[in-house]
């Protein structure tokens, strides 16, 4: 389920700073989780990036830009939308369960089922 995955990844990666290292690669300064998840911040460079392991990295005058968000398929700005959609799905499931229960009780009272 996309909404659950996106909300989980954003919640886990947003507050941390990531230190990316790799053998034979130049050192990259710590990347804040917000930048790490931001497709828009790095979107202009996305076509010119080469793949390095699981992340795509571009160094631009000492500033590192990581576009793993495109690989993960998440956007940090969608968290509130994801939570609202998940809440609506939960409310719908509760309403369906309540409807099924009331239908079952009605049928039991009328003697249509056992």
Compact overview of the structure:
The protein is an alpha+beta fold and 114 residues long. The chain contains five helices and five strands, in the order αββααβββαα.
Structure report:
- This protein has one domain.
- 51% of the residues lie in helices and 15% in strands.
- The protein contains five helices and five strands, in the order αββααβββαα.
- The strands form two sheets. It has a three-stranded antiparallel beta sheet with strand order 3-4-5.
- A hairpin with a 2-residue loop joins strand 3 and strand 4.
- It is rod-shaped, with a radius of gyration of 23 Å.
- The two termini are 37 Å apart.
Number of helices: 5
Q: What is the count of distinct domains? A: 1
Oligomeric composition of the shown chains: single chain
Q: Walk across the major sheet and give the strand order.
A: 3-4-5
From the alpha carbons, calculate the radius of gyration and give it in angstroms: 23 Å
Number of strand segments: 5
- End-to-end gap: 37 Å
Q: Low-confidence parts, pLDDT < 50 over ≥5 residues?
A: 43-66
Structural class: alpha+beta
**What summary fits the major beta sheet?**
3 strands, antiparallel
SSE succession: HEEHHEEEHH
From the spread of the alpha carbons, the general shape counts as rod-shaped
Strand content: 5-15%
Report helical residue fraction: 40-55%
pLDDT averaged residue by residue: 75
């Amino acid at each position: 389920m996309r909404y659950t995955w996106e909300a989980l990844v954003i919640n886990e990666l947003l507050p941390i700073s990531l230190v990316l290292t790799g053998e034979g690669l130049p050192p990259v300064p710590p990347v804040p989780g917000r930048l790490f998840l931001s497709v828009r911040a790095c979107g202009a460079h996305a076509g010119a990036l080469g793949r390095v392991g699981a992340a795509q990295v571009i160094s631009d005058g000492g500033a590192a830009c990581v576009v793993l968000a495109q690989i993960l398929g998440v956007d940090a700005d969608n968290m509130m939308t994801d939570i609202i959609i998940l809440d609506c799905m939960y409310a719908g499931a509760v309403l369906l369960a309540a409807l099924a229960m009331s239908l079952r009780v009605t049928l039991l009272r009328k003697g249509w089922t056992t």
